[in-house]
């Protein structure tokens, strides 16, 4: 095989680690039917075409509310298995960063893997700030948190180590399962505006759904929770009133704040 690990392949490896599965006969990728569709149709399609000269054809699976595709190409399956070291079958609890990527000294390779993993298994949330004196900050969502959740302890701390290597402060927390049939989980978290900017500058957001949240934050200074992809597009384009996601009291406080600021 003549493939080598490029930033594009590293990003694919990250996304596969987060959201893919592989059997001997096929690889499959399935994401959210609403939030991930644009990412699959554009970014993921481009990555496979540039890396393997292979054209994917994502499609909806309405019965499961997912969007994705299967790949039956033997060379691609072999590469993911042999070159990257991903196992056939379940990988949830044994998941780790491929050795060839984890040991790389190329920051572009490391950033690409993190970008891909976050595209599949990460979330960008914005919280209220209850300790602040300004009442409006207790209502709108202004404080950014980049979060990645996994049940693999190994990859949780590997991702933390990669972020440390990139000088992006983070911490890992463990959540004990309350059910016998569920495993403990680990959350890697990067919090605050300065760290968000560092993440955006070094790693970036491959999934448009996450990128739109970031752009809305830069435009308005806060981001309403639980928005659909279409709503995020309309908010960013200024075609939807961002205050429509908040109670009348929030709008009143915002108006008062604007009056005080002239």
Q: Describe it for me?
A:
The chain contains ten helices and eight strands. It has 262 residues and is of the alpha+beta class. The N and C termini lie far apart (65 Å). The chain is globular, with a radius of gyration of 20 Å. The protein has helices at residues 7-19, 37-52, 74-83, 99-102, 107-121, 153-165, 193-202, 208-220, 229-236, 248-260; strands at 20-22, 27-32, 59-61, 66-71, 122-127, 143-150, 171-175, 185-191. A four-stranded antiparallel sheet has the order 1-2-4-3. A four-stranded antiparallel sheet has the order 5-6-8-7. Helix 1 packs across helix 2 and helix 8 packs parallel to helix 9. It folds into two domains: 7-120, Homing endonucleases (Endonuclease I-creI); 121-260, Homing endonucleases (Endonuclease I-creI, Roll), CATH 3.10.28.10. A hairpin with a 4-residue loop joins strand 3 and strand 4.
Proportion of residues in extended strands: 15-25%
- What would you call the shape? globular
Poorly predicted regions: none
Count of individual helical segments: 10
The CATH superfamily of the largest domain bears the name: Homing endonucleases
CATH topology descriptor of the largest domain: Endonuclease I-creI
CATH class bucket of the largest domain: Alpha Beta
Based on the model shown, name its key terms.
262 residues, alpha+beta, Endonuclease I-creI, 4-stranded antiparallel β-sheet, 10 helices
Please render the helix and strand layout as text:
Blueprint (H helix, E strand, L loop, with lengths): L6 H13 E3 L4 E6 L4 H16 L6 E3 L4 E6 L2 H10 L15 H4 L4 H15 E6 L15 E8 L2 H13 L5 E5 L9 E7 L1 H10 L5 H13 L8 H8 L11 H13 L2
Antiparallel strand pairs: 1-2, 2-4, 3-4, 5-6, 6-8, 7-8
Helix pairs in contact: 1-2, 1-5, 8-9
């Amino acid at each position: 095989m003549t493939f080598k690990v490029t930033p594009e392949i590293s990003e694919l490896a990250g996304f596969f680690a987060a959201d893919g599965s592989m059997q001997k006969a096929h690889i499959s990728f399935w994401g959210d039917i609403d939030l991930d569709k644009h990412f699959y149709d554009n970014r993921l399609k481009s990555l496979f075409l540039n890396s393997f000269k292979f054209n994917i054809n994502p499609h909806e699976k309405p019965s499961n509310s997912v969007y994705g595709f299967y790949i039956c190409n033997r060379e691609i399956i072999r590469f993911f298995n042999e070159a990257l070291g991903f196992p056939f079958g379940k990988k949830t609890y044994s998941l780790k960063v491929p050795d060839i990527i984890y040991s790389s000294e190329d920051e572009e390779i490391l950033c690409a893997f993190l970008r891909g993993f976050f595209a599949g298994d990460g979330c960008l949330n914005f919280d209220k700030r209850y300790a602040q004196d300004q009442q409006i900050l207790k209502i709108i969502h202004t404080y950014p948190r980049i979060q990645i959740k996994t049940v693999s302890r190994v990859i949780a701390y590997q991702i933390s180590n990669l972020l440390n290597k990139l000088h992006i402060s983070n911490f890992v927390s463990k959540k004990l399962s309350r059910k016998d049939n569920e495993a403990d989980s680990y959350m890697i978290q990067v919090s605050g505006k300065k760290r968000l900017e560092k993440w955006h500058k070094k790693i970036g957001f491959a999934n448009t759904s996450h990128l739109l949240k970031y752009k809305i934050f830069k435009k308005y200074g806060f981001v309403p929770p639980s928005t659909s992809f279409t709503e995020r597009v309309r908010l960013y384009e200024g075609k939807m009133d961002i205050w429509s996601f908040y109670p009348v009291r929030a709008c009143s406080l915002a108006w008062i704040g604007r009056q005080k600021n002239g």
